[in-house]
Amino acid sequence: MDHIPFGDTPTTRCHFYRRVCDLPAVVDPPHLGRIVIPATCVWALIMPAHLGQAVKTEMERTETALGAILSHPRSGRWTYLIRPDLPDEVTLFAELFRLNVSVVREGGTIALPSPADRCAQFRRWVELPRCIYRPSGWAVVAAIRACAGPEPRRTTTYA
After folding, report:
1. Is 2 among the domain residues?
2. Does some domain include residue 70?
3. Residue 61, domain member (yes or no)
4. Is residue 158 part of a domain?
5. Which pTM does this prediction carry?
6. Residues 75-122: pLDDT tens digits?
7. Which residues have C-beta within 8 Å of that of residue 48, sequence separation ≥ 6?
């Protein structure tokens, strides 16, 4: 594993995620060095990269504190780690679904960047996790709504 700098291994990175960021990270499977967290005390909102960038800009504009954000360059998606405070509401999920945003909630798994990733095309940090802070899911949803604009009105045409 000569591509991993000395001292930065999946295990040491996992310890950092646990101790500094309070993320329940585990290396799974060990032979691949992938780092994942179960969506329990942290959830995620996953969206297209262009929307993710706009949401980040909106949150900075409104002085809403950012938490950890990661990018998946191959799939063109961004993941915001959030507090698990979004309700289980069909209307909210439908609204987010129309915007190509998914919620990783209780029972899901979130993959984090690992030094074992073969290249930066897998996962990389846009905003590094530096502490235990995670924004409210509602704050990120508000920024998504601001970036998406008003919902198009549906008109019914009768023949």
Report:
1. no
2. yes
3. yes
4. no
5. 0.87
6. 999 999 999 999 999 999 999 999 999 999 999 999 999 988 766 568
7. 76, 77, 78, 100
